Amino acid sequence: MMDRNTHTPRTLCAALLGLACFAGAGTALAQAYPAQPIRMVVPYAPGGTTDIIARQLAQRMSEKLRQPVVVENKSGANTVIGADAVAKAQPDGYTLLLTNDATFVLNPVVLPSVSYNVARDFAPVAAIGYVPLVMAVSGSLPVDSVKDLAAYAKARPQALSYGSFGAGSQPHLMGALFNKLAGTDLVHVPYKGSAPAVADVVGGQILMTFPALPTIQSFVAAKKLKVLAVSGDKRTRALPQVPTFEEAGYKEMNISAVYGVLAPAKVPRAVVDKLNATIREILDEQDFVEKHFAAQGMVPMKLTPEQFARYIETQTQQTRKVVSLSGVKVE
């Protein structure tokens, strides 16, 4: 009797033919995709940094892919509403999520009942880049450094507050860390987005907030806001005189907003590869990056899908430590 593990020439040919057909199907799929418009969900309201980045990227992707890439805003619940909608969408490459790491790193750590699981429900497609978050105070406040701010706040316990963009958001975490590290007692005030928090800093209703740099450049230019520190490994070209959080003595607060594109889990690998290659090609276009990203303080990140997945995993582990240090809890 022939051993069931013995491969005859006929079975080997059949196996090789099957592999060839599978590889050919993947190549054909990549060449045919996209055959219809792509929906890019942004889990924030129009006008913010994420929305701006998404629309700039979508326009260029439309040109390269020769199909419309249409931005759809689905805001609410700390980005959970938009993310959940994409997680439940058909995994065909025609529904994408463009968001920042509040969605794919912070929420799973601070929101115990979050409806999605990043590893289970999403396929990382491509990182785009990171935008520095800054410590912003009123331009009229009599402080010029983080050290000055800590002394100012400590002299006024429970009399001052900081604004976040919602419970469990990155600014919430950063304000809680500042309280812990500086020994201050600032009261947390959650807002529905960055714009009202920034407006109340300008108006003097709250002491500070931690917005993405692009959203406040006009206020900084008009001297209505002062930036005391900026996240990132090095100073931003947009504000070269402002120290990093590490330079200011608060390295634990070095939290940036990292932006990326994800698709529903089980999307064909050929589609992921095509989208990743397209986005990386765009990030290689110096004119586009200078005009749309670098001018806003964004630093491009060109990662493969595997590298992006590892980044998410590593940052999630690091964020668990930071959240534990800050004492932030979201019910």
Automatic annotation (TrEMBL):
InterPro entries reported in the protein's UniProt record: BUG, Bug_dom1
Signal peptide, first to last residue: 1-30
PROSITE patterns to which the protein is assigned, alphabetical: PROKAR_LIPOPROTEIN (PS51257)
Family: Belongs to the UPF0065 (bug) family.
Keywords: Signal
Pfam families reported in the protein's UniProt record: TctC
Protein name as it appears in the record: Extra-cytoplasmic solute receptor
Organism domain of life: Bacteria
Keyword Signal: yes
Organism from which the protein derives: Cupriavidus taiwanensis (strain DSM 17343 / BCRC 17206 / CCUG 44338 / CIP 107171 / LMG 19424 / R1)
Keyword Protein biosynthesis applies: no
